[in-house]
Design goal:
Length: 84
C-alpha cells in the first residue's frame, strides 16, 4: 500500500493503517503543500529539496533497486480498495 498525503501530526499511524487494511505500507508520501503549491502556481518541477520530492525519490530508488536486483514484485492483495 502507498499512503498519500501522510502527516506526522495525524492521529493514525502507519502501523494503524497496516492493521486496519491488513496489508503492509510500502511507502508513504507526505502532505507537502508548499512544494506542490510552487509546482502548480509557478510551473516549477518538483525538486528533491522538499519532503515530497525526497519521498518520491526514495520510493523510486527502492523500486528500481528491487527491479535491478531481480527481486519479484510483491503480489497485490486479493482485493483492491481505494481509500479517499
Amino acid at each position: 500500500m502507498l499512503v498519500n498525503r501522510m502527516d506526522r501530526r495525524d492521529d493514525i499511524s502507519v502501523a494503524d493503517m497496516e492493521k486496519l487494511f491488513g496489508v503492509p505500507v510500502h511507502a508513504s508520501l507526505p502532505n507537502d503543500y508548499f512544494s506542490l503549491h510552487r509546482v502548480v502556481t509557478l510551473g516549477q518541477p518538483l525538486g528533491a529539496d522538499g519532503d515530497l520530492g525526497k519521498a518520491i525519490e526514495g520510493l523510486v530508488v527502492r523500486m528500481t533497486g528491487a527491479i535491478a536486483a531481480g527481486k519479484k514484485p510483491v503480489a497485490p492483495a486479493r482485493e483492491t480498495r481505494v481509500v479517499a
